[in-house]
Amino acid sequence: MSEVTHYLCIGCPLGCRLEVEEDADGSVVEVRGHSCRKGKTFAEREHHDPRRMVTTTVAVEGGRWSRLPVHTTSEVPKLLVHDVVRSLRAVRLTAPVERGQVIVSDVLGTGADVVASRPMPAD
Amino acid sequence: MTRLSLRYDVVIVGGGPGGMSAAIGALESGADRILIVDREIELGGILNQCIHNGFGLHHFGEELTGPEYAARLIEELVDDHIDVATDSYVLDVDPDRTVTIVSPSTGISRVQAGAVVLAMGARERTRGAIRIPGSRPAGVMTAGLAQKFVNQLGYLPGRRAVILGSGDIGLIMARRLALEDVAVSGVYELMPHANGLTRNVVQCLHDYDIPLHLSTTVVGIHGNDRLERVTVAPVNERLEPDLTRTAEVECDTLLISIGLIPENELSAKLGLRMDPTTGGPVVSSTMETSRDGVFAAGNVVHIHALVDFVSQEALLAGRCAGEFATGRSRPADNIRLLPGENIASIVPHTISSDREHVVYLRVRRSLEKSWLRLGDAYEKRLRYVVPAEMVSLKVRPRFLENFHGDALKIDILPREESGPDDE
User: Which of B247, B259, B266, B324 has the greatest CB tally within 10 Å of its CB?
Assistant: First the structure.
């Protein structure tokens, strides 16, 4: 028995409605609804291993602002995004912080580091 | 605090991506003394609170977060020729380009500018702009204000939020609040389609199971000290709410994301000629306004969807301001651009036939396949156009070799057949 899953393509403003059909053993039978190659690739990746960049903030003391924006150095599995954000709530930094400074390395074992998106000068 | 000089070649009003890129352009043009004035305590403008990624693909060739994009520009600005006055506000620009600046540390100063670049950006439309009835409790704010609270000041605006408007800032904030474990009940959109980029609908709403209610709007706000609930209602094709089919949604926070207004108080005081379709000044191909030596770029001219295009437009404005201040000028424009079929706005408003220009267009309605026509001089196939995304058109001198008029009408028309060079 085959199963069809739907995705909305984010490759361009067309926003094609993509369908991924897979058979009982979980292998993809067909991708439909795409109007370019990019859409097909997107559907396959989104179906097997959806990943997202994480951008959030961490607490910083003695800086110009009380929050420091941070991001992951690569995409992490979509299911772990919320856990990554929650795990960063325990972080307490003190200014100054440099842009690109590693805040947490290999966050939750994803292989991605969490780094500062901007410098945070001491106030 | 920077000690201001009495005279600058170029004074730039606003230190966001537009103002910073204009300063880099002015520096490239050989201007000697450049001043950026911004009312915030640091450069970067609204990019500093846009902590998400997706910026810079066109301008820097890589995907950056907002603060990274700002930091890149700030690093380029460290130069002996550039002064930066933060925590400072431009009160007035005189027609002779005397700029009056006020700041808490230095009081009122007047500087003489060889040229001025207006880069004040835009501000958000508020509850007042659409006159939502009801009480006036705490907890009702624009999405951008909530973004500043969460991302820079470290406050959550509430525990249960409703978002009105599906503009990109509203979608981004829906995700941001969900990630901070604020319950987001839904996004309500007056129009039958989402206003933000598809990418944001998928990654900000679908990823977090946040419902998007199209053709629905907020018709009532309730609560005494704090917001307690909102009333929502579906709208008909004339966008009128049906008050017989309302629903109540409990929430302590209502974020409003219903569009941006170019911030043109200074332009109005200067008496600049304005374009009612963009809400910004009329500009020539050098981004010069109707006053000599006063240039403008970025959201103050027209609302952009991508910061990358703000940078490119502002680099040009800065270069031309620098050239003006140092006594050089490009040949004057000889062709007016007129909005035709399915064109809501065009920037710049005039071009010249002797050099290449980038023209930015906004369409009125979406078309999957279309022709872009520049009078009878040039035509090109477009793959898709949507009102939310600007169309940029490179106009090359060879397009205009056989054109001898003084005005060109631009149309974007439906196209039936498909062609091999779709883009």
Answer: B324
> Cα(A3)–Cα(A15) distance, rounded to whole angstroms?
22
Q: A42: part of which helix (H) or strand (E)?
A: helix A37-48
Instruction: Identify the CATH class of B335-414.
Output: mainly beta
Cα–Cα distance measured from residue B392 to residue B309, given in angstroms and rounded to the nearest whole number = 9
**pLDDT given for residue B330 in this prediction:** 87
The CATH 2.60.40 portion of chain B extends over 335-414
- Are the C-beta atoms of B60 and A111 separated by less than 8 Å? no
Residue whose entry in the numeric block shows the structure tokens 């947490």: A104
User: Tokens representing B280?
Assistant: 């910004």
Segments forming the whole domain that contains residue A15: 3-48
Q: Do A64 and B70 touch (CB under 8 A)?
A: no
Architecture of domain B7-123+261-325: 3-Layer(bba) Sandwich (3.50)
Please, is A18 exposed, middle or buried when counting C-beta atoms within 10 Å of its C-beta (0-12, 13-18, 19+)? Answer: buried
Enumerate the residues of chain A whose CB falls inside 8 A of the CB of residue B41: 64
The CATH homologous superfamily to which domain B126-258 belongs is FAD/NAD(P)-binding domain (3.50.50.60)
Rounded distance between C-alpha atoms, residue B143 and residue B125, angstroms: 10
CB neighbour burial string for B166-195, b if at least 16 within 10 angstroms, e if fewer: bbbbbbbbbbbbbbeebbbbbbbbbeeebb
Mean pLDDT (whole number) for B390-401: 92
pLDDT at B378 over 50: yes
Q: Which residues of chain A have pLDDT under 50?
A: none
Q: How confident is the model at residue B423, as a pLDDT?
A: 45
DSSP B330: P
Residue with tokens 């389609």: B193
Q: Is residue A121 part of a domain?
A: no
Termini Cα distance of chain A: 63
Q: Alpha helix locations (H) across B326-397?
A: none
Residues of A with CB under 8 A from a CB of B: 7-10, 12-15, 52-53, 55-57, 59, 64-67, 69, 71, 78, 81-82, 85, 99, 117-119
Report the number of secondary-structure helices (H) and strands (E) in chain A.
2, 10
Q: What is the pTM of this model?
A: 0.93
How large is the ipTM? 0.91
pLDDT digits (tens, 9 = 90+) for B58-82: 899 999 999 999 999 999 999 899 9
The β-bridge relationship of strands B343-347 and B140-142 is: unpaired
Q: pLDDT digits over B14-47, tens only?
A: 999 999 999 999 999 999 999 999 999 999 999 9
Size of interface A-B (CB pairs under 8 A): 80
